[in-house]
Write a structure and sequence with these properties.
binds zinc ion; alpha+beta; 5-stranded antiparallel β-sheet; 160 residues; two-stranded antiparallel ribbon; Peptide Deformylase; 28% helix
Length: 160
């Protein structure tokens, strides 16, 4: 089933998500549906709040590999890099965002097993973007204050 993606300024995108405590078939099915939804929308990552679930997990499809990050946490950050990002909750909007270049993330898999991953490049970028969604943070929040103000004005005009 293809899920509906919540678009800015839907208030669920601003909510801090709850920890996943139950690792069951329902969660597995939801992840499978999110991968379907991600593919059809040609995205790299999708976080649970974007499909209306305020739960702490996201999925990434990268180099034909499907990754699921449940209750993730960044435990190491290194360097800095500016890179263009898009977001399925902001169709057609691409922004150059500065973020750490290399990260190490602790998370749980679908069985609730603790895992760690080191990432750089595009993968590090996608993970950081999706992890922000779990805290109610959007990529427009990562712009400088002035850029953000003018962008929010533009977005309001586009919707008017
Ligand atoms: Zn996004």
């Amino acid at each position: 089933m293809i899920l509906e993606i919540k678009k800015y300024p839907d208030s669920i995108l601003r909510r801090k998500s709850e920890k996943v405590r139950v690792f069951d078939e329902k969660l597995r099915r939801l992840c499978a549906e999110m991968f379907e939804t991600l593919k059809i929308n040609k995205g790299l990552g999708l976080a649970a709040p974007q499909i209306g679930k305020s739960l702490s997990f996201f999925i990434v499809e990268f180099n034909d590999k499907r990754l699921i990050f449940i209750n993730p946490e960044i435990i190491k950050k290194e360097g800095e890099e500016i890179f263009e990002e898009g977001c399925l909750s902001f169709p057609g909007l691409f922004l150059k965002i500065k973020r750490p270049k290399r990260i190490e993330v602790k998370y749980q898999d679908l069985d609730g097993q603790e895992r760690k991953i080191k990432a750089d490049g595009i993968l590090a970028r996608v993970i950081q973007h999706e992890l922000d969604h779990l805290d109610g943070i959007l990529f427009i929040d990562r712009l400088s204050w002035l850029k953000k103000i003018s962008l929010i004005k533009k977005l309001k005009k586009m919707r008017a």
